[in-house]
Amino acid sequence: MNGDQHHMPDMDGITITDNKAGSMNDQKVTMMHPMTFFWGKNAEILFSGWPGTRDGMYALALICIFFLALIVEWLSNSKLIRPGSSNVVAGVLQTLLHVLKVGLAYMLMLALMSFNGGVFMVALAGHLMGFLVFGSRAFNDTKEVAYQKTSDLPPVAC
């Protein structure tokens, strides 16, 4: 048959058979993506082939996810724009910080879409630690007025 033949997906993924005229090559491409939480180090997080199957790379991936969540909380609760800054400079800086925060939050969401239980747990731990240190009253000056603005950025709403 001339042209490509595409078979229906089976339980193992998608099978693509290439039967072009004059070609005897058949390729089978299998793509699997878990749709429920699983536990284990063999996962792909954010990039193809990363972290792979090595324990050390999986641990590095979990550390990166933890710090990604921690940075999102820091940006969500930081006051980096100094009083007295010009409105234009403050507005541009505020916009850049917002884009950075949202971009990192989206990367964290995509990492969570790996459905790996370890990734989920360290993301929660990163948010917990980040909020505890940067957003809660535990390590902040309690003399602030309750209605005082606590961040330069608006809250992230999903």
UniProtKB/TrEMBL annotation:
Subcellular localization is given as: Membrane
Instruction: Report membrane topology.
Output: Multi-pass membrane protein
Instruction: Please verify whether the record's keywords include Transport.
Output: yes
- InterPro entries registered for this protein in UniProt: Cop_transporter (IPR007274)
Q: Does the keyword Transmembrane apply?
A: yes
Instruction: Return the Pfam families for the record.
Output: Ctr (PF04145)
Task: Quote the cellular component terms of the Gene Ontology held in the record.
Answer: plasma membrane
Q: Which UniProt keywords apply?
A: Copper, Copper transport, Ion transport, Membrane, Transmembrane, Transmembrane helix, Transport
Q: Which GO terms describe its molecular function?
A: copper ion transmembrane transporter activity
Segments spanning the bilayer are 56-76, 88-109, 115-134
State the family it belongs to.
Belongs to the copper transporter (Ctr) (TC 1.A.56) family. SLC31A subfamily.
**Protein name in UniProt:** Copper transport protein
